[in-house]
User: Fold this.
Amino acid sequence: MIADRNFLAPDVVADPYPYLHALRAEDPVHWSEVHQAWILTRYEDVESAFLDERLSAARVRSLLPAEPSAQDRQSFDPIYRLLGNWMVFVDNPDHARLRRLARAAFTGRMVERLRPIIAALVDGMLSEIERERHVDFVGRFAFPLPATVIAKLLGVPEADLGRFQQWSQDVSGLVFGGSGGADRRERAVRGLQALERYFRDLLDRRQRAPADDLLSELARAEEKGDVLSADEVIATCVLLLFAGHETTANLLGTSLFHLVRHPEQWRWLGEDPRRATHAVEELLRFDGPTKMQVRLALEDVDFRGKPVRAGQRVLLCQSAANRDPERFAEPDRLDLARDVDEHLAFGIGIHYCLGAPLARLEAEIALYALATRLPQIRVVAEPEWHATILSRGLATLRVSV
Assistant:
């Protein structure tokens, strides 16, 4: 019987793959007493679970006390109200409606027009790193790049980005299952309240004087006579700001960490900008920013003979699935030339990541620029990983150029 490990244990946070490999090989549908959830680790099962309508993404209530009192409901109202309107936490038909209305503003044209802006931001940030020579890559590049991009897309002033970092950290401890302690719900409430106040004020201004930005598009988005309510617009903005920089920052930091450890792959990437597309897909597969996603069983479901009961949580482990040897040859080997397009880093089905094109574009531009501008970059200290159950990313990565 395989040992039941805590995903917040320091060694599992630093490298979850040995434990995930053991689960996948010995107990691919594993009941975890520690996490009170079923853990799926094989590609076939994870893919199937993403597409199974008997498994619900509506898990906001699982973030709150099991039997909330009236006081709890009042205290945690922002969690119910804002996170409850996140399209990633709702099922159809509400999910389809929210996604259609948001996608009407989040078009390929909106993303592609950011290419020169992203390239200019990358160039400026790398110039600063070259001057300073010794920096925390996460703090000076991986976080501010996607945060600045999503702020520009939404129409948020860059001067306000510093405020968002703390608010986002307060929310991420709850959403990603962090080890933030007993007060993580209270901190998440404070962060959500601050974000709500900020975006409600900005929305009021955009409704009076629309601008050429995503917030203005969302405010007037319409699909077959349906429009987003003010609460839904604000919730969608909070989601896009949060998800639009958190996951991409994690992808950039983790990718550089691995590329520096694989110099032959680093050199290969820097030889041709067209290789960046392949490289990003392989890095997403090899060690993507989302370890797993949570689903709730709406009814009894059977996985490989294991009885998943209605109401139980199921963890769909993308990190394990993306290294399944039944799906990928030599899955623990980083190969940027690998032809891989079926990884599950962005999920699959109706909840496939809406921001995937933007994340890919940012990573392609940034990683190729790093490979050509700073080919001798070195990691000079042990990295610090975020201690979260669901996400995978670095808190710090000290580098020297």
Observations:
- The chain has 18 helices and 14 strands.
